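sorry for the late reply, my laptop died twice this morning and i had to redo everyting from scratch. anyway the thing you sent over, i finally got around to it. pasting the sequence first so we're on the same page, its 339 residues, then the predicted structure underneath. double check i copied it right bc i was rushing
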Amino acid sequence: MIELDGSEGGGQLFRSALTLSALTRTTFEMNGIRGSRPEPGLAPQHVTALETVAEVCDATLKGAEIGSSTVTFEPDEPTGGRYEAAIGTAGSVTLLFDAVLPLASGLDRPLTLTASGGTSVAWSPTMPWYRRVKLPLLRRAGTHAAVDVDRPGFYPAGGGRATLTLAPSTPSSVTLRDRGEREGALVHSTATTDLAEADVAERQTKLAHDRLVEIETDVEITERTTRYVAADSTGAVALVVVEYENGVIGADALGEPGKPAEDVADEAIDAALSDDESGAGVDENLADQLIPWLAIAGGEIRIPTITDHVETHVDLLTAFGFDVRIEQTDDEPVLVSEP
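ok and here's the structure:
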């Protein structure tokens, strides 16, 4: 059994431990879970992830309750089938999917997971980013995965519903060291129907488009979309994606009461351009989330910066016996792994 310290890594570290444990069939005990957070221990969305992964791999577990700071997880082999999970209120659906997504490499048959909660909420990947940035990249690397959204969910009510579909996969090496030439960009804006009269989605799209063209004069806008959706709580998302021959930079931003649509678009543009200027092959958020795939299939990823999440993630993989390391170069740092 592996003993892990969860005090510094937050919920992402805990979810990744579940995934790696299920893939390697290695029992672990994590202590001090989310110890550095204002409200330490497991929150409802972490308990849901724990119970869902346990169901997929028929695991024996201890500590599956809200507020628990110690969890023991003893997995069996992951198996496909149909699963459902209800996070409650606006707990992140995309983060729940993240705990299950890498299990595609260990499945014996297809898997579907239908989850309810928040599809685009703070401190987590929004659903537009997830579907238009992360999943396309993983599919190109051999992971058979898709997400269908039945209903969006924003803070505070949540009420969203989406389904993750996986098929048994053999991921290929993730090589994103040299991103190549820029191929284009897309701007995507979503807002709830109660914001239609104020043209929130259109304003987000227009400002993001105009700023991108003004700053990056040679960029080709290959897609520009605007949509309104019905949801239990008011919400808006702006997404900017810059695509390369061998890489992708994506950045999103959420609307909130009192925050002008133009400020939402500015936030997404600023983040996208910052990562674009770094020369990295992926954006800062994707860098952290691709680390499990490096462990599974190997590869090299040039990243914008070494965040705390990246460092704790690499340490976690080392604890599970994977060779993933950070190489400092004259330019940006590179994540390297040999399967």
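The CA atoms of residues 217 and 276 lie 14 Å apart.
thats about all i looked at so far, will dig more tmrw
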